[in-house]
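Section 3.1 - Work completed
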Amino acid sequence: MTTGQIISVDPSAPDAEVVARAASVIRRGGLVGMPTETVYGLAGDALDPTAVARIYAAKGRPQHSPLIVHVASVDQARELASEWPRMAQALAERFWPGPLTLIVRRRGNVPDAVTAGLDTFGVRVPDHPVALALIRASHTPLAAPSANKFTEVSPVTAQQVANGLGDAVELILDAGRSQVGIESTVVDVSGGRPVVLRPGMISRADIEAVVGPTARRLTPTRGNVVHRSPGQSARHYAPRARVRLLETSQLDTALAAADSSHTGIILCQSEGAPAAALAFSRSLGADPKRYGAGLYDALHAADAAGCEELLVEAPPDTPAWDAIRDRLRRAAHP
């Protein structure tokens, strides 16, 4: 098999032969670029420490950042968990399949390599027919962090996986662009009160409507401290271009001082594109779901346009935009 090969697959009715081919890669310890509704994942056998080590090596991911395990059902998740709190069951019934990861206590069959040595692990059921078919055909849960180098922009297309990881992945299933566009919400339900560790398009309000008040999100850790959830590094989701997150009132001044031939802009609330002849310009609109679906694609496009600096109009500072602002603040971190 050609390394890094992209094979198209119907996102709603995946071809069983194509899925079986990808599953055979997983079963022999290889890695597959797997589409999900959030972003494309770098999938390997979650119960095989050697395959998990290949994921870390391919991404250049530090060992203190645990992986999320993808399963095909609540029952499969419970087989990996030593405890399954009522909160976990309530959230799973409401949001799975979907972009929600639950942090629960693990059984001994979940390797230390997946959890960074913690007694907890993250698990979710993806809302994507191709991902679900691959999990079932592989006969094993799949560890599947975003299919990109660590701290870089997550891929939302198969070609972006190939561009970022090259020959580190044996096969990439191309099911078109991911619909949600950013990573899952992560909620820790392993303690007495749920904690939102990473915001996503399932909001804190959505979570609290099911399980009641959540604790304040923990301050992201630095250095080599083990994280309880992915997405906790100060710098993350970052394009090659230097990102400047600016309020609307700051845009004109920043544009006037910019080298337009190497500058791009991403707009939110402002109408249309600026008059300056910039290397890249895109308006993602003032709806958070539409914005989230287009954000990473825009960041990849800005890099492809050769931008050295990317001016990003800050979205509203409201709960509906928490996940977007989280990603942009980390992308802009020096």
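Second construct:
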Amino acid sequence: MTTREGIICAGNWIVDLVHEIAHWPAESDLVRIDGQDKGVGGGAANVVTALTKLETGLPLWPMGAIGQDDFGKFIKAHCHELGLPTHLISEKPDTATAHTHVMSVTGRSRTFFYQGGSNDVLSDQDFPTGVFESHKARIFYLGYLTLLADLDRITDDGSTPAARVLSRARAAGMTTCVDLASVDRPDFSKIVAATIRQIDYLILNEIELARASGQTPPVASQTPNMQDMIEMAKALIKDGVRRAVVVHCQQMALWIGVDGQVAHVPVVPLPRELVASPLGAGDAFCAGILYALHEGWTPQRALELGHAIARASLRGVTATEAIPNLNQLTDQLDRQTKGITT
């Protein structure tokens, strides 16, 4: 049997146009843009970029869809600059590359205005079975479920095209990992339920956890209750998650396994003055979890790595620019374990 190695990162590819503002204006009012930046974002893009920044040497394959426009060229140039192949990124004629205007209030919050474009027409036909047979990846990541219009569709058999894609990956011998988007839509929990039986690891934040469970998400000022999150995660496992639910929020990270194991890591906040933008911190966390899964790390160590990468990402304006290599992060984790302050 051929040994599998590496990670396919599939799903959302978005050009993020980040606008830094001092405060959020009242309706019909004006606020000055203090700074602007442009970067590549989205679940697949941020995760594969973060994994590249870690410099692990693992084979990485970006996968998704772009338009035949300047934003699409920008995404391909981004991949080429990182040394990543682009042959699995489909080009959709007459469809704009997905892009987002991100309004970022420094150190506080960010708001997204999203144009789905090419992500909306990414379909299961863009994931032929032969791709999973010919690319010997160990992990297949899909992000973001709930923000991939065609793949999110609930079909007549009660499933989704995303579930078909994940089933093909699993049949080829890959472990499937799925991330969600914090989008408020009435069918959120139905999309998750229709896909869940093909998901080995479900990675999500506290808002997505509540919505996936059909519960009301906590408000921004509310600290989520750990036991409530554990119970919601266990309900998703009962519904079909195959190996574990991994939850991240500002206060903690949790791992709830199908074997009943629960791991917990408290989050050490970065001082507000060092936070350039929270954009992409969840994706950075996800990249750490994927690497740890690939290498067979313990749940506790996986959560610690995910937190360390997410914390580092907060120092950059774009989602991945501040992520250091893995050796720096593991040295930091080892020092923390031994009680050495830095």
